[in-house]
Amino acid sequence: MSDKKKQIKEGLTKLVIPKDFLKKKHFFNPKVQLSRDFTVLVLNTLDAKGWIVCDALAGIGARGVRIARECRVKKVWLNDASEDNIEFMKENTNLNSLVKRIKITNKDANQLLSEQPRVFDYIDIDPWGSPAYYFGSATRAIKRTGYIGFSATDTATLSGTSPITCLRRYGVESYKTDFFKEVAVRILITSAVLSFSKFSYSFKPLLSYVSEHYFRVFGEVKKGRSIANKNLKENLGYVNFCPNCLWRKISKPITKCEFCGSENKIIGRVWTGQIEDLKFIEECEKKLSEIDWLKTEKKIRKILFLLKNETLPFYYNIHKLCQKHKLRIPKTMNLLLELRKNGYFSERTHFCEEGIKTNATLKDLINSIKSMPIKIICD
Questions:
Q1: Do the beta carbons of residue 351 and residue 315 sit within 8 Å?
Q2: How many separate domains does the chain show?
Q3: pLDDT, tens digit (0-9, with 9 covering 90-100), for 91-105
Q4: 278 and 323 in a common domain
Q5: Average pLDDT over the chain, rounded to an integer
Q6: For residue 112, pLDDT beyond 50
Q7: What is the C-alpha to C-alpha distance for residues 32 and 30, in angstroms, rounded to an integer?
Q8: Is residue 310 part of a domain?
Q9: Distance CA 17, CA 5 (A)
């Protein structure tokens, strides 16, 4: 082996990676093992036996080779536009004895996908920046019922730092909120939904999560004009947000805040439906108990546990809420118990350590914090 390479192991798969793996030429990020582990779990949960899979922006091939080695798929296409990565793809394919199960191509991802109509059961899109540039061609390449996983690393754009850039890339003008990570995921889903609907496909999110520097979504796509139309009608709406008091509401656009009367910011139209499928999350938990080779198993299990509570849209960042309203900051668990005592749903969220999801109104949430004994408040 070259002194510029080294061998590692992820899951059940041996991988040859460059020693300078964080350079863009042969980029490999060990911190994204969680994402690759999640992909293996999702495909095993979906029972991908006999599937044809495309890793459209494969880099050195780590994700696609792991899919071929650790899932019961028929074939994996590894593709990358950079010739520099082909050598690593071939070496990793041979190292794991997967020559018959892997096809390697060296093309622009959009070109490859456009040339393979209705070929793939699952397509993975993991680019530098935005996946939105590849949704159109992915729609051509996916089967009439299929699945897609995609990541976005342009987190600042999606989170409200560059609203016009977000509008240009994703079709929604973002705005900085205290629940910006969830807004970002919902904008990302919106882009996929709108792109697939142009070709009479529906997109249903199965699992969405945030980790470190990226957003990740897995979903089902299905051909059918009526289901695509229904998906749009039932799940796209407007988010009214007041920067002055942090009030928020999903409804038709409202000019003035219903809590303090200040002018609202309106985000939309954006995906307001479920960002997780509860049944699928539970199936992932069961499958995770059967898989004993994922190094990030504990992290995945914690995320899945929290995702089951993501049924309500838009979390509150309790620290920011208390700072805005000049309240003492309560311990999160104590606040959850106080809200439950008062008859409200309340749970933590994976989006934010200081965040909670609750069906309490902003007024009732503030009153609950105010009514808590001083001894269970911590500044």
A1: yes
A2: 2
A3: 999 999 999 999 999
A4: no
A5: 94
A6: yes
A7: 5
A8: no
A9: 6
- Which CATH number is 158's domain given? 3.40.50.150
Q: Based on the fold, state whether residues 248 and 173 are members of the same structural domain.
A: yes
- Gyration radius of the chain's alpha carbons: 22
Question: Which residues 6+ apart lie within 8 Å of 247 measured at CB?
Answer: 240, 241, 257, 258, 259, 260, 362
- Residue 116's contacts (CB-CB under 8 Å, 6 or more residues apart) are 54, 140, 141
The whole-angstrom separation of Cα 195 and Cα 332 is 39
Same domain, 261 and 328: no
Q: Are residues 14 and 114 in the same domain?
A: yes
pLDDT digits (tens, 9 = 90+) for 225-236: 999 999 999 999
Name every residue whose Cβ is closer than 8 Å to that of residue 353 and which is 6 or more positions away in sequence.
Answer: none
Query: Which structural domain range is residue 379 located in?
Result: 315-379
Q: What is the pLDDT of residue 24?
A: 60
> Which of 291, 377, 279 minimizes the C-alpha distance to 328?
377
Same domain, yes or no, for 335 and 197? no
Q: Is residue 293 part of a domain?
A: no
Same domain? For 217 and 360 the reply is: no
Q: What is the pLDDT of residues 46-99, one digit of tens each?
A: 999 999 999 999 999 999 999 999 999 999 999 999 998 999 999 999 999 999
Listing from the earlier edge strand, what are the strands of the sheet with 236-241? 248-251, 236-241, 265-271
Backbone angles phi, psi at 294, to 5 degrees: -90, 120
Res 26: pLDDT: 60
- 186 and 102 in a common domain: yes
Query: Encoding tokens for residue 344?
Result: 């409200």
